[in-house]
Amino acid sequence: MSVNVEIEGEIAIVTIGNPPVNAVNRAVRERLLALAQELDDNPDVRAVILTGAGTLFVAGADIAEFDRPAEPPFLPDVIARIERAVKPWIAAIRGAAFGGGLELALGCRFRVATESARFALPEINLGIIPGAGGTQRLPRVIGVADAIHIVAENQTPGGAEALKLGLVDALVEEPLLPAAIAFARNALEHALPSPSLDRPVSVPSPDVWAEAEDRIAARAKGAAAPARALQALRHGIEHGAEAGLALERSIFLELRATEEAAALRHLFFAERAALRPAEIRGINPRPIETVAVVGGGTMGSGIAAALLNAGLSVVLIEQDEAGVSRARSTLAGIFDSSRRRGQITDDQASERMARLETSIGYGAAARCDLVIEAVFEDLAVKRSVFAELGRVCRPDAVLATNTSYIDPRLIAEGLPGPERFLGLHFFSPAQVMKLLEIIPTPETAPDVLATGFDLARRLGKIPVRSGICDGFIGNRILRRFRAEAEALVCGGVAIAAVDAAMRGFGFAMGPFEMQDMAGLDIAFLYREAARSRGEDVPEIPGDLLVRAGRKGQKTGGGWYDYAAGDRRPQPSAAAERIIVPLVSARNDVAEEAIVARLMAAMAQEGQLILDEGIAASAADIDLVEVHGYGFPRRRGGPMFQAGRASADKT
Ligand code: 3H9
């Protein structure tokens, strides 16, 4: 049974036990509705405590049900019944009371919580708004201004903060239940407060709404839900709770059916599945506490910062004094900028730097549990690093290469103990970007692979296993994406039109703006190297631009022109002249058609990657794009898009 009842004297204890997170599904709703009646009818019961089994209260409605039409009994009706029960319900909360969980708690007459409690209405992250009264009861319990932060801006107060806000009536110590029972007995001695929905609420000044709208719009990145959540909240304040509940429910049902919400649900489940792939289930990772990073350039320093942020100790290995001091100052700069943004305190910044050791030469790697090589992308250089590491490191230490293109099997050739080796492909800036491509070789031991996934979890990253191919999953799709964008330009579509279409779709930058920022020369050298090996690599516009000295922003121009000190791209007559030999007559293609071409190219490459067994699932490919390449989250990823496009056709 997913909802259990025990009677302790005159108090009934209702426990929602629906592992792993006590999500409220139809069975839970049915049982709660029936219980509200049963307990009202039970003459021995005077109050009801509602709690969650295990370490949390309730993580919300069961998201897995959202792909189907809503089925009665509906959560708003269950909560309304609890709120109007003759016997008062008291929510006893530890851990997460999220979404529908917080809404259930708000339907109770009282809330008691431990310090460990966390309150949130994270529905906007799923492209929806609270659908069971959250936008109406919360402002009536804690006031409009604070409610806006939680409903539409993702604020998640803990137990102590919730007490200050008036969201909980008492903060109690563990064990929770005896404390909640004592609270209930005492409450029964006094007059009951009004149900949340009936409480008076002061109407804020128009400035409060205007400021909230501005804040929300500034952060929305095209997402619809935050503004709609605010709209529902405001409607209920201006037109009364009943009107507010009706609008909230209709927006909830409308948004739940959108492509954006489906995309966000898809990513929600994909992200969780990524951390626990079947192939490593039950396999213990190797313990990792001290990590050596070889190479203190942008990538190596970023990786070191990510490790230090996660509480690991780091030895950064460089070739000479100059390298060491460059890396130290890069890392100090990274933590200083986190400190200035309020993400960490002064003490945390100093503590992180204190966990950083720098070293010249490889000796210090001898005591490390994991070594991550992040040197120049060159096979011979990387091999020489692993030759040293093979000599110095403990035989059980895990050895990883951060390569973005080179076949890890070639890097590991001749390494003693190749079973401890794997690829860990970080994305720049490594302390920020969430993607970690994990690339085992055929010899990588299962517990070494499990160690890669465990490390990703500890760093707060999304791990995706990639098989071995040129560019692995992400860079291979990127190459195809760029090639298609260039093909559009060769077909007469304006450079700026391609970029504008992709920005309109939700990318922060279009493919040509992105190339100008990153520099056109690395990919050019890569193509030139292939040509010099005799491979047939056709001439493309990017080749002509680099040969003409236009390597991107760093040379003042690439696909676009840039004024000195200004990163805003200006259409470039010079660039257009240079690429003329490869471009046909101007052909104006609609934005939607440009997006469709580029999406189709990404999805086709993705399908090849799946067919070759390079990626384990289409969802993994979507995670790579969303977390490593700026694919707009609300679009779900290229494979999700392809699925929707083919569903539209059938
Ligand atoms: C809502 O409530 C709408 C209402 O306003 C209105 C309704 C009418 N449903 O994250 P974890 C699964 S919308 C179904 O790794 P943690 C998850 O997939 C909801 N499944 O655990 C995973 O499955 P698996 C608003 C869910 O300890 C497993 O549980 N609420 C749900 O790191 C463990 O999850 C939210 O958006 C769910 N609601 O973190 C809260 N939640 O083992 C979403 C989790 O098969 N949840 N699962 O991979 C969370 O934020 C975290 O799960 C939480 C625990 C912080 C609670």
From TrEMBL:
Q: Where in the cell is it found?
A: Peroxisome
Superkingdom classification of source = Bacteria
Q: Which SUPFAM superfamilies match?
A: 6-phosphogluconate dehydrogenase C-terminal domain-like, ClpP/crotonase, NAD(P)-binding Rossmann-fold domains
Report domain 3-hydroxyacyl-CoA dehydrogenase NAD binding positions: 290-465
Q: Does the keyword Magnesium apply?
A: no
Which residues does the UniProt record annotate as the domain 3-hydroxyacyl-CoA dehydrogenase C-terminal?
A: 471-562
**What InterPro entries is this protein classified in?**
3-OHacyl-CoA_DH_NAD-bd (IPR006176), 3HC_DH_C (IPR006108), 6-PGluconate_DH-like_C_sf (IPR008927), ClpP/crotonase-like_dom_sf (IPR029045), Enoyl-CoA_hydra/iso (IPR001753), NAD(P)-bd_dom_sf (IPR036291)
For this protein, the record's Pfam families field holds:
3HCDH, 3HCDH_N, ECH_1
Keyword terms, alphabetized: Fatty acid metabolism, Isomerase, Lipid degradation, Lipid metabolism, Lyase, Multifunctional enzyme, NAD, Oxidoreductase, Peroxisome
On whether Transferase is a keyword of this UniProt record, the answer is no
Annotated pathway, please? Lipid metabolism; fatty acid beta-oxidation
Which catalysed reactions does the entry list for this protein? a (3S)-3-hydroxyacyl-CoA + NAD(+) = a 3-oxoacyl-CoA + NADH + H(+)
Among PANTHER family, the record links this protein to: 3-HYDROXYACYL-COA DEHYROGENASE (PTHR23309)
The name this protein carries in UniProt is: Enoyl-CoA hydratase/isomerase family protein
